[in-house]
Design goal:
This protein is an alpha/beta fold. Helices cover 38% and strands 20% of the residues. Helix 6 crosses helix 8 and helix 6 crosses helix 9.
Length: 347
């Protein structure tokens, strides 16, 4: 078989040699360009495969005949049938409802990214994963609109429970069980959709070394038990509580460590006492467990400061008053957005 040198060094006129060299050079450059383009395209396609995976997931209670479950009474529907738990330092479930479309839009314009890549970057920077938590409705129109929002933003965790204010304690328990099934997290954070949050500072707080593995972290309070049915925070089971509530966290933002949530997951739903108010209900459960109550007032700051983690209009509102507008206003303030991350060393 003739070797390539004999082919290239065959006798040719000078002009033919130059033409051959030019053609070969062109072919080499074209071929190298094609190889580099193919390599870039391949890497780009791999990146898209990693980042375009659906983030939203629907969670339903296990029923007779179900074959794909997590083993704790939950069935996952996330598009690929995978029940693997995603490892993060903290999972933040932003509780929301069907009437809170405007709040979610304001959040996505402020501290919570509105696109998959932004959520991924935030998770990588803080170790925190964020999802909106919502139940279901018998109103087909509401479910249709929610489906469109899920398809557009892909930042939801959907629970198989009726979305009603009176059922918030049940929704909260369903949230913790679903979050535990989906995420292998050091902390599980319950947040409302009407607070201004600094994810970087929340991350710093959760990363702090603790000697107690069972932690109940929040802005703690005590107060009178309302037994008048005409009042907003009326508690029908007030006779079990006495005249004053026990030490417990405000509802807009609190966190439970993994060991605490694991204990909640292990118990049957009907074994829990459900009070009218969700924060009181969680606080009551924590009294029955050997948890460390970690009080941090930076989780309920009335204004942005050098150490505030969450801002809301305490005690005037149980969140921000007029949150759709207030979230945008706070995000324009340097004290809310441009102040550096501070270590949260005080309890």
């Amino acid at each position: 078989m003739p070797s390539s040198p004999k082919f290239f060094h065959a006798r040719q006129p000078p002009s033919g040699r130059r033409s051959t060299v030019l053609i070969i050079s062109f072919c080499l450059v074209f071929g190298l360009s094609g190889f580099l383009f193919g390599l870039v395209a391949l890497r780009s396609s791999q990146y898209k495969c990693l980042t375009s995976q659906s983030r939203s997931v629907s969670v339903v209670w296990e029923r007779i005949g179900t074959t794909r479950s997590t083993g704790n009474g939950l069935v996952l529907s996330d598009g690929d049938g995978s029940a693997r738990r995603h490892k993060v330092m903290g999972f933040v479930g932003i509780q929301t409802g069907f009437g809170s479309v405007g709040r979610r839009e304001s959040l996505r314009k402020t501290w919570m990214p509105s696109d998959a890549q932004g959520l991924q970057r935030l998770e990588e920077a803080t170790g925190l994963a964020f999802r909106f938590i919502i139940g279901k409705s018998k109103d087909k129109a509401k479910m249709l609109e929610l489906g469109k929002e899920v398809a557009r933003y892909d930042d939801f965790l959907l629970l198989d429970i009726e979305e009603e204010y009176s059922k918030l304690p049940y929704k909260t328990l369903a949230f913790f069980k679903a979050a535990y099934a989906l995420f292998d997290s050091d902390f599980y954070v319950k947040a409302d959709d009407d607070i201004y949050l600094r994810p970087d500072r929340l991350s710093t707080l959760l990363a702090k070394e603790r000697s107690h593995s069972q932690t109940y972290l929040g802005c703690m309070k005590k107060g009178p038990v309302f037994t008048d049915p005409k009042l907003k925070w009326y508690e029908p089971l007030g006779y079990l509580l006495g005249s004053e509530y026990f030490f417990h966290a405000y509802g807009p933002l609190y966190a439970l460590s993994a060991d605490v949530v694991a204990s909640l997951v292990a118990l049957r739903n009907n074994s829990f006492r459900m009070f009218s108010n969700e924060d009181v209900t969680i606080g009551a459960w924590m009294l029955a467990m050997n948890v460390n109550h970690e009080n941090n007032q930076a989780l309920c700051s009335p204004e942005c400061t050098s150490s505030s983690i969450a801002v809301w209009d305490i005690p005037k509102c149980s969140g921000l008053c007029n949150p759709e507008k207030k979230l945008l206003e706070l995000h324009q303030m340097d004290s809310c957005t441009k102040s550096p991350t501070m270590n949260s060393d005080d309890d």
